[in-house]
TrEMBL record:
Residue ranges of every copy of the GST C-terminal domain listed in the record: 88-230
PROSITE patterns linked to this entry: EF1G_C, GST_CTER, GST_NTER
GO molecular-function term, one example from the UniProt record: translation elongation factor activity
Ranges for region Disordered: 221-271
Domain GST N-terminal: 3-83
Protein name: Elongation factor 1-gamma
Residue span(s) of domain EF-1-gamma C-terminal: 264-423
Domain of life of the native organism: Eukaryota
Keywords: Elongation factor, Protein biosynthesis
Biased composition (Basic and acidic residues): 221-232, 239-248, 257-271
Length: 423
């Protein structure tokens, strides 16, 4: 098979393009001796591709093209009988839609997260990390919702859209999609497995990585001080002879490195001591009937300290994105897994209310202190939920709280279908 051009990329890169070329039966060359950030900055390269960006396509016919999605679409179009762009103008538009969705709502945010946690974007920003994660997860939920009742994204056969989505998810699995998140997108995971194991593209995609937790930022450690010599300690030098203040760039380095110091005690631990023991409550809830005489709720009202703890309602912001109730239940499990760092400060009873394709997620939390955010912001997706304080002195709030704990909560005609406890 004759080569139709050169794909400028590094070894193992541009997987979407490579997979599309294999599926379309298109042969191409890779540049010999390509060195990233060097070869693509040379005058020879930038004279053809002024932005100095890879991947880039240099056809045998002299046609030049850059941007991954554009190159993949071009190669797919060279083999119209492959079906990679669908079989109609509408199919082609849908393929473009899902390719764009995968790039802008998943891959883009994954790249930002990867740079943040690896220190390429400095200074590290947790709010930025959280925002990127939430956007990435929302993109995955939309893809999951579409593929839940389909084998492929467009039509009944594999298209460029499937390859682009699978590539984006594979990338996400190496950075931010941990085992808990996987449980919330089972159909998308199934779809990716179908795509990467197509015989025609065997070997292009590496095995899907499994993360027990998303990659986290770890600041560089400060340089260790040199060990003191064993000889007697010399007399202190006069103040004037002290080491000069470091230069500005050294100051910045120390400031960045300071994040690696041992973590300060959680501010929640500095709150005044409470008479309400959360662990005792968790045991009471586990061992007693929720309602009735001598039940868990009776124990709660007898021991609760409203000065040291607060009670909150939690609601998922995007119920229109929920499909199967079992998937929504898995989503709650994923949230609880990401709240692990706050286990000593938090109890939760959250459920799925309604039926498939017409449900919502809601429940109640008991947490340390007067504010929810310091407790729940350890979960990257916490901003996908609304947290509303409950006043147990109000009949409606008290009724909601008790129903959430008893798993008989009903909202707008939607009854409790399944639930999970965080304890």
């Amino acid at each position: 098979m004759a080569s139709q051009g050169t794909l400028w990329t590094y070894k193992g890169g541009s997987k979407t393009i490579c997979a599309v070329a294999a599926l379309a039966g298109i042969a191409f060359d890779l540049p010999e001796g390509y060195v990233h950030f060097e070869t693509n900055k040379t005058p020879e390269f930038t004279s053809k591709f002024p932005h100095g960006k890879i991947p880039a396509w240099e056809g045998k016919d002299g046609f030049l093209l850059f941007e991954s999605a554009a190159i993949a679409r071009y190669l797919a179009g060279l083999a119209p009988n492959s079906g990679l762009l669908g079989h109609s103008t509408q199919d082609a538009a849908l393929v473009d839609q899902w390719v764009h969705m995968a790039e802008t709502e998943v891959s883009f945010y994954i790249q930002q997260i990867a740079q943040l946690v690896r220190g390429a974007l400095t200074p590290y920003s947790k709010p930025m990390h959280t925002a990127f994660t939430e956007r990435m997860q929302r993109g995955l939920r939309t893809l999951e919702m579409h593929i839940a009742t389909r084998t492929f994204f467009v039509g009944e056969r594999l298209t460029l859209a499937d390859v682009a989505v699978a590539t984006a998810l594979l990338q996400a699995c190496s950075v931010a999609v941990d085992t808990a998140m996987r449980a919330t997108i089972p159909n998308l995971m199934r779809h990716m497995d179908t795509v990467v194991h197509q015989p025609a593209i065997a070997g292009i995609f590496e095995p899907v990585p499994v993360l027990e937790a998303p990659l986290a930022y770890v600041a560089p450690k400060k340089e260790k001080e040199k060990e003191k010599e064993a000889k007697p300690k010399p007399a202190p030098a006069p103040k004037a002879e002290k080491k000069p203040k470091p230069k500005a760039d050294e100051d910045d380095e120390d400031e960045d490195a300071s994040h690696a110091d041992p973590k300060v005690k959680n501010p929640l631990d500095d709150l005044p001591k409470s008479t309400f023991n959360l662990e005792d409550w968790k045991r009471a809830y586990s061992n007693k009937e929720t309602r009735g005489a001598g039940g868990a709720l009776e124990w709660f009202y007898e021991h609760f300290d409203s000065a040291g703890f607060s009670v909150w309602r939690v609601d998922f912001k995007y119920p229109e994105e929920l499909t199967q109730t079992f998937m929504s239940s898995n989503q709650i499990g994923g949230l609880f897994a990401r709240l692990e760092a706050s286990r000593k400060y938090l109890f939760g009873s959250v459920g799925v209310l309604g039926v498939n394709n017409a449900s919502l997620i809601s429940g109640a939390l008991i947490l340390r202190g007067p504010d929810a955010e310091p407790v729940v912001n350890v979960a990257p997706d916490w901003e996908s939920y609304t947290f509303t304080p409950l006043d147990l002195g109000k009949a409606a709030d008290k009724e909601f709280f008790e129903a959430a704990l008893a798993w008989d909560l009903e909202i707008d005609g939607k009854r409790w279908a399944d639930g999970k406890n965080f304890k």
